[in-house]
Design a protein that fits this description.
Blueprint lengths: L10 H11 L5 H16 L3 E5 L2 H14 L3 H6 L9 E5 L10 H7 L3 E5 L7 H8 L4 E7 L11 H10 L4 E4 L7 H5 L5 E5 L10 E5 L1 H9 L12 H15 L7
Parallel strand pairs: 2-3, 2-4, 4-5, 5-6
Antiparallel strand pairs: 1-7, 6-7
Helix pairs in contact: 1-10, 2-10, 3-5, 3-9, 6-7
Length: 250
């Protein structure tokens, strides 16, 4: 849990972080190494490291609004002229230290809540998705959600039916990353410091064009959400351990 400092890292991850503190790096090369390793493990197109998963939510939403447009990135959090509606099921409006609605609004986006706290159907989501100013659908895969469970794959398909991207926040569920990607989600967001036991960081995994747009936010609102060299090095070391983990045995 975050108030406890999250997970304890293994000795090899600790050594990687300590070694990184004494070196220079080309950060883009470190990020590319993470992307390649995540792609090898999961089959996803690309990945990038952010400061944390909360930052990843804001950056992923920003990416769906601006793409990699220099003008759009510089304009945020002013979303004038951009699609800025973010659809989220009512039961997925969770609080993990702050409301997920805050993470949406930090990008300059407007949260639009679908359904009710007790239930949100795919039809509710489809109805909310209608509108030329809709940017994306945001879903949460977490024990914190409430109400009748929503089929994430069907919800993702509903977004795609309108030509819109779907994002899944699966912060503590990196061990389920394959399953979350199998829903067809365009971006899946996970924590590096929870079960992956890396330093504090977030991982954005999914479509290469959107991952690239997430990275590009560092030229705008994402400047204060960037990952450090030691966190990326620690994530690389943790991913190497994960690659050799027998998950079923674990």
């Amino acid at each position: 849990f975050t108030p406890l400092g999250v997970s304890r890292s293994s000795p090899s991850v600790q050594r990687a972080v300590a070694a990184a503190l004494g070196e220079f790096f080309i950060i883009d090369e470190l990020q590319a190494a993470v992307s390649e390793r995540v792609a090898r493990i999961t089959g996803a197109e690309a990945a990038t490291v952010t400061h944390c998963t909360a930052a990843a939510i804001t950056l992923a939403i920003a990416a769906t609004m601006t793409g990699d447009s220099e003008t759009g990135i510089a304009q945020l959090p002013d979303t004038t002229g951009m699609p800025n509606r973010v659809i989220i099921p009512a039961g997925h409006v969770v609080n993990y230290g702050h409301s997920i609605l805050t993470a949406i609004r930090l990008a300059g986006a407007v949260p639009v809540i679908a359904g009710t706290e007790s239930a949100c159907t795919v039809d509710d989501i489809s109805h909310a998705l209608v509108g030329e100013h809709t940017a994306c659908l945001l879903l949460v895969s977490s024990r914190l959600t409430h109400g009748t469970p929503l089929d994430l794959g069907q919800a993702v398909a509903a977004a795609h039916a309108y030509g819109l991207p779907a994002i899944i926040d699966g912060a503590a569920q990196d061990l389920r990353l394959d399953e979350l990607l199998a829903t067809g989600a365009d971006l899946v967001l996970i924590s590096a410091q929870k079960y992956l036991a890396a330093p504090t960081a977030g991982l954005i995994v999914g479509r290469s064009n959107l991952v690239r747009a997430c990275r590009a936010q560092e030229r705008g609102i994402g400047r204060g959400m960037k990952a450090t060299k030691e966190s990326i090095a620690g994530v690389l070391a943790a991913l190497e351990e994960r690659e050799h983990l027998d998950i079923a045995a674990w």
